[in-house]
Amino acid sequence: MWSFNEIIDLGFLDFIKEIRDIFGYTELADHARYGQYLAGVFTMLFMAVKSYGMIVGDRQWEIMPLLRPFAIGLVIMNWGAFLALIDVPLRGVSRISEDGFRKKVEQTQTEYQLVMQLTNELGMKMINGAMEVNQNSEQQEQGVFEKLGVSLSKMASLIEGARIMVMGLLKFIPKLWMSGLCHWIYQFCFYGVMFIQQIFLVILGLLGPYAFAISILPGFSDSYIQWISRYISVSLYSLIANIIATVSMFGMNYTNRADIETLQQILDDEEHYISWLFQSDFTFTMPALMMLLGGLMMFTIPAISTWIVSTSGLGNALGNSVRGGQALGMLARKAVTGGVA
Question: What is residue 93's predicted lDDT score, i.e. its pLDDT?
């Protein structure tokens, strides 16, 4: 069950990753079948144009370009297996980062729960301790409060206790709200990236057969290469998100340990508690800042994925490689025919 008190709910994360398996593959066969229909129509048009040019003598006799539509058709006919083939290395790489990410989540979650427990105790201390400020002996109170310039007259003791409680709440509640807001932003950004990735992969998987089919036409010959580069780029979202989350949790661990030490001192020592009320510090602030930075970094994932697999440069590079391979095939054929002659 999803819980706001968890850094990352791994159960909810697993549910998001199942969206693709639940929705995507149910309609995959239908779209692949329509992609085959389009590929058949485009193949006939392609063959007609190419064959006519060879018949009238405008083009040399070439075999490799004529086999290209059939190779694309085979990919569309085995679309599910083709997607699985691409997913195997990508999921393997993502699993490496996910294992370390899950271990870090468990470690951070343990420390975060301790911080929340101590925070609740501090809140109860401020609420219940207003009337208990003056229950200690007069000498102990005199030593603590004189350092802070707080009057201990009997007539003002009740007012001073209420004042201390109000000051504590005014300091405690805004920080608690800020921590909760940053936590919400962190979860929203992380879950949002994972959800968007699954939606994009479903869309690319369902519409991929059409991209391959239209690539049979000469004017769109690189569309299938662009599809592959985008599919790989989107598949890397989870890998990058796990890395960003893991790095941000290193900062959370450091700040959480500092907060745990501070909260324990505040709860165990009355003098530290009173001093904390009247001083400015970064309690609850630094962990919230780490969450906020980690959440904002999630928005850079689409740009970072293009550093690894460029959705434009890769298509041009692979397209040039394919055309270069075809040119080498033509040269080899000419060399063989020339040798035979």
Answer: 84
Residue 309 CB-density burial (10 A; 0-12 exposed, 13-18 middle, 19+ buried): middle
Domain total in the chain: 1
Tell me what pLDDT residue 336 has.
44
Q: Is 160 a member of any domain?
A: no
Q: Which of 280, 296, 291 minimizes the C-alpha distance to 255? A: 291
Please say whether the beta carbons of 32 and 79 come within 8 A: yes
Please state, in angstroms and as integers, the Cα–Cα distance from residue 329 to each residue in 64, 192, 302, 338, following that order: 8, 47, 38, 14
Q: Residue 152 domain-assigned?
A: no
Question: How many residues in the chain?
Answer: 341
- The range of the structural domain enclosing residue 186 comes to 10-123+172-340
Q: Is the pTM of this model over 0.85?
A: no
Asked if residue 255 belongs to a domain, the reply is yes
Residue 306 has pLDDT above 80, yes or no: yes
